[in-house]
Structure formats: C-alpha cells, structure tokens
Write a structure and sequence with these properties.
mainly alpha, 9 helices, 2 strands, disordered N terminus
Amino acid sequence: MTDNSDRPSRSPSGRAGGDKRARTRRTLATAAAELIAEKGWDRTSLDEICARAGMTRGAFHGNFKSRDALFMAVMEQETTPVSVQFQPGAPLRVQMRLLGQAVYAHARGRLERRALNAAIQLHLMTRPDLLAQRAEATAGGWRSMAAGFGRLVPAGALPLPAERFVKVIDALTAGLTVSYFQAPDLIEEADFVAAFEALAGPPPAPTWGGGHAVTPGPVRRW
C-alpha cells in the first residue's frame, strides 16, 4: 500500500534514473496521460502523443507493442498506491484512522488529475480484455495487503477474514475518492477518517469515575 513512486528507478547496470528506454517509455506515457485527461483515450491519436512527447512514431513502436500496451503503462504510472505509515502494535481503530487520513491526502493530491482517472476507468469498462489484465494485478495487490494486515494486527483483531477485509478497504477507498473528486467542497478529511474507523467497530465504551464501563440505563421517553 505504500507509494514508492518517488524512488529513483535503476537500470540493470545500477545507474539511478533508469536507462534511455525507461525514460522514453515514461515520457510517452506522461504525454499520453496528459492527452487522455484532456480528450479521452479513444480520441487521442498516436501522432498526438508522439508530438506531445517530442518523439517520432518510430520511438513509440520501438518501446510499445500496441496502443493497449501504452494504455496499460499509463495506468500503471498514474494509479499510484496510497502511502500510509501504520503503527505496529496499535489498535485496529488507530490503524484505520491513519489509513483514512492517508487516503484523503492521496485523493487531494490527485484532485487536479481526476479527469484522467475517469477517462482511464471509462476505457477499461469498454475493454473486457484489459479489465482481465487489471484484475490479475488487483488480485495480487489484495494478497499482499492481506498478508500485511496479518503482520500488522493480532490474529482475530479484524472484523472479517483478511482476504475479505482488504477488498472492503479497496472498495471504500475507491468510493470515497470518486465522491471526493465529484464534490471536493462537501467531503472533508474527517469524513474519510470516520468511514475507515467504522470498519474497526464501535468506539470503546466511555468510562466514569474509577474507569469502569458505563452501562446505559433505560431510555426515558417524553
């Protein structure tokens, strides 16, 4: 779940920054991402992408087998994971609060590129073959997340089996992010945090005096 996209890539020789091929692919993917955000994938031509990148069609064909391959590269480059610093040993409610804060920060950082996010999702919905490829990567991410939660919290601390819990987290992240993109002035960080804290169950019962749990009395009806 941690975002490592800011770390410099390394070529097989160990040089920071990657080799020429990697830089060319990134440049083409970045140009394609800009155009997709402006006009959608279906209305973006290879000539426009190459012109935006300052490269030739030969450069494209030398680095990507097809338009679909470039699209998948754009999606991989642009759909960065959420970076969150969990606290090993802390209660699940604390972990969920940290996650809610991180998801909000990630969504806020991506707000200016929300049109790109929507265009990518729209194209995926029309391409079952690309969705299948994406599903494989998603399944691998879920397995990794489930293993991570298994190490982060004690056994039995999750309200659901880890394999199902991470699917709920992923869906909640996606739903909150889209809602925020649609109405950023109406959704605050506290809303993100409250949604994720709810996954940890109700808050601890309040205490009184010597620290004993308070038992609610009968409700008085007026």
